[in-house]
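Notebook p. 47: complex prediction with S-adenosylmethionine.
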Amino acid sequence: MEVKITKLDNFGRGIAYVNNKICFIPNTLQDEVVNIEIIAEKKKYLEGRLLSIKDASLERQKPKCPLASICGGCDLQHLSFSAENDFKQEKVKAILHKFLNLPASKVQDIIFSSDYNYRNKVTFHVQNKQIGFYEKNTNTLIEIDHCFLLAEKINNLLPILKQVVFKNNIEEIIIRVTNDEGQVMVKLIGDVTTYQELLTVVDVLYINEKIVTPKTTFITTIGPKKYSLSIASFFQINKTLTKNLYDTVKEEIMKANYSKVLDLYCGTGSIGLYLNDYVQELIGIDYLESNIKDANYNKDLNNAHNVTYLCAKVEDVITSFQNIDAIIVDPPRKGLDSKSKSTIVNIAPQKIIYVSCDLLTLARDLAFFQDKYEIDFVKPFNMFPKTYHVECICSLTKKIIDKELL
Ligand SMILES: C[S@@+](CC[C@H](N)C(=O)[O-])C[C@H]1O[C@@H](n2cnc3c(N)ncnc32)[C@H](O)[C@@H]1O
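Predicted complex, structure tokens below:
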């Protein structure tokens, strides 16, 4: 049937209405007239598949990658980069308005850098001696010779990895490069006995949990700061834009003289160590041992004498803190749990800086803080071009409540 796409949803899928029922159609764009078939009929919505395009959007572009519409990695390669940035900017405004009634003027312009070759890390699956990604929503492998989202240094490793895969029974390959692409770290998971050819091209090599190179970590940089990373540790995947993200958090912290600051969900200490020079004391918390081991090393690497790290679940230890001036939170996609949120409100820091990789949980959590905190601004960052994901920083200031009015 022929339908008109009215807009894109949060996941970058086109929305059309079929007999007044909402229908989601991937790979379509706003204002396009397209032919589709219905592939799933649910109680509240339909799912459609694009068959042909009658009137194409002016923002439609030919994807660089021939696998773009089937591989699970990209959602928006068919959209121009400027329209992708506009889409993300507008969805931040729309969702925060819907959940919080936030005025559009509080959402600043989206920050972006290069749209390709931005990822410093990848996890490849291996099936039947082929290296690739899973097809969207399946476990069917799509073989990959080159991925446009990855740092070139990662793509350049693929031919040699194919040889290694051929000689072993490998299930998964994790590759990480430094942000300047100077060094590379690889982990092979599976039954691996022959890997000599890799030793000449990688700096750090793990075979399952065993390290087989003299080096166990490498040092990457963000702006002036150095970070030592192990394979299991969390690190922001965008090679260049992470600096802009951290600069924004630093600028917010520099606006006041905060003495005690919490860096919750601190990973390898990356945000806290980017700004610890501007506070008296900083405490970072993360539950992953590998992150905290690296964070403690990174503390010394950056001569940060005012920083301490705690390996624990935030929700298990947060009640033990008081007299905190500012709290930085950078939780995983599921956002903050209720106990941590109410404890943060009880601690009552002057400033909360929320770094979020999930717009819906950000909206939910900001709604919780809204009574006691003023939202100063939300700044979107296009950290994951060609996907529907958007990173945001939200700066909140404690409201001054006039006691006479209570
Ligand atoms: C989005 S990452 C942020 C890391 C860091 N701020 C950065 O910019 O690199 C989220 C981090 O939260 C940690 N994490 C997830 N759930 C947690 C919990 N309940 N308590 C403590 N840390 C947690 C993960 O280990 C991960 O390092």
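Notes: The chain has three domains: 2-60, 84-114+238-405, 121-221. Residues 2-60 form a domain with the OB fold (Dihydrolipoamide Acetyltransferase, E2P) fold (CATH 2.40.50.140).
Next step: compare against the earlier run before touching the bench.
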